[in-house]
Amino acid sequence: MRRPPPRSKAALSEQDFLEALPAMNTTATVLAVLWVLRNEPMDMRPLGHYPDRHFTEGAPRQLIRRFRRRLR
């Protein structure tokens, strides 16, 4: 908002209302950021999912199994 909210319940004119709204470029920037943040990247993996076998020892694999059970 470009102006503070009204302090009284008096009716606002259309001009007062329009002047309080954020600038169009500010709104467009916020919408662009929200669009980028809501889209999942193509290389996103779910938490606890490890497709490459980096963890081959028994102890880390047990921890991964326990972690996946807790996620479920």
Automatic annotation (TrEMBL):
**Which PROSITE patterns does the record match to this protein?**
LIPOXYGENASE_3
Q: Which residues form a coiled coil?
A: none
Q: What is the name of this protein?
A: LX15B lipoxygenase
Q: Which organism is it from?
A: Zosterops hypoxanthus
Q: What transmembrane ranges does the database entry give? A: 20-37
| Record's keyword annotation contains Secreted | no
GO MF annotation terms: metal ion binding; oxidoreductase activity, acting on single donors with incorporation of molecular oxygen, incorporation of two atoms of oxygen
Q: Do you know which InterPro entries this protein is assigned to? A: LipOase_C, LipOase_C_sf
Entries under Gene3D superfamilies matching the protein: Lipoxygenase-1, Domain 5
